[in-house]
Amino acid sequence: MSAVYDCGRHDSRADGLAAAAGAVRSSRLVVLPTDTVYGIGADAFDAGAVQSLLRAKNRGPDLPVGVLVGSWSTVDGLVLGVPPQARALVEAFWPGDLSIVVPHAPSLNWDLGSTRGTVMLRMPLHPVALELLRDVGPMAVSSANVSGRPPASNVEEAREQLGDSVAVYLDGGPSGEPVPSSIVDLTGTEPLLLREGAVSREQVSEVLGVPIADPA
């Protein structure tokens, strides 16, 4: 049976964050608010929990799951040398609506899907998400919806789609306009804009000082 916690109330928020942290540490799934849409999350280093996340979404490993972090410094432990371009984007847009794709450290023991040695990272601008991430560490997070259906912009939409596959739902109120994060791929010789969302191509180009190409 799932539990729902109203994070708009101080006492319920504290209880909800504690319950969510306990769920993550015991290989279960949680739904959390972010600054874009609601996300369904699991411990990034728990392969079984990540597989449960993919099953809940009815999604295969060919679409790997991104990772949310609670601080800039967390990235240093996940990436084998943070590229200068990645550092510049992190400083300009984190916490916020920009995801970066970078090579992950080969020593990491995780299975996020068919990542080919890369990982998509983001630090969300939402106090509930940040508090949970700073407690439990990096989380594998995808939009809180069944594949092929619209992403959830409130906890009721998430529950309607995901039901009891999720142990804890953190209700942070409506997410506002369901605009996805922008995604910049920094794994090649030049930065590529995989998705233009809340952060524009022009903003990314200005920070990096180079034109931003689309993938071929």
From TrEMBL:
Domain of life: Bacteria
SUPFAM superfamilies: YrdC/RibB (SSF55821)
Nucleotide-binding among keywords: yes
Database matches in Gene3D superfamilies: DHBP synthase
Cross-referenced Pfam families: Sua5_yciO_yrdC
Location relative to the cell: Cytoplasm
UniProt-listed Enzyme Commission number(s): 2.7.7.87
PROSITE patterns, per the entry: YRDC
Domain YrdC-like: 14-199
EC top class, as a word: transferase
Keyword terms, alphabetized: ATP-binding, Cytoplasm, Nucleotide-binding, Nucleotidyltransferase, Transferase, tRNA processing
Family, per entry: Belongs to the SUA5 family.
Protein name as it appears in the record: L-threonylcarbamoyladenylate synthase
Species the sequence originates in: Amycolatopsis minnesotensis
Lineage, opening ranks: Bacteria, Bacillati, Actinomycetota, Actinomycetes, Pseudonocardiales
